[in-house]
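Table S2 (text version). Query chain:
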Amino acid sequence: MANAKTIEKKSQVVSEIKDKFDKAKSVVIFDYRGLTVSEVTELRRSLRESGSEYKVYKNTLVRRALEDSDYKLEDALTGPNAIAFSEDELAPVKIVSDFAKNHEALELKAGIVDGKIAGLEELKQYAEIPSREGLLTMLAGGLIGVVRDLSICLDLYAKEKED
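Corresponding structure-token output:
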């Protein structure tokens, strides 16, 4: 039978996990087996730079933390897992997916994006969405094209009126 200190520590970890799941806008669960220490450090650094957090918890504690929630992630909580939490909807999804492309040992399992459970295929689709800066660049490029076309039309119209 577990002693009182152990039970107290585990209940603190369970409440920490609940808190992280409640506050996070996105969560990515992945298998990190086969990664070297330097690769894990590189992944942690990338996640930290994006404002995300990388944690490894026991699956039983994560299951206990999610018992009262709408998140049913039992299938993903097998084997050793790491979990990335973030206030950004797409940052950890993109970082972990990009990292997985270069490191075959990393395997995405499931995630939660904006309160909805996302499977492997959905996570891959989310990872392909351009960043905010990329979308703004596309928008600016489109607007510049419209303004350029308008100026050409106005110039041609002005030359036609001169004749």
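Notes on Table S2: DSSP finds six helices and five strands in the chain. The domain at 4-129 is CATH 3.30.70.1730 (Alpha-Beta Plaits).
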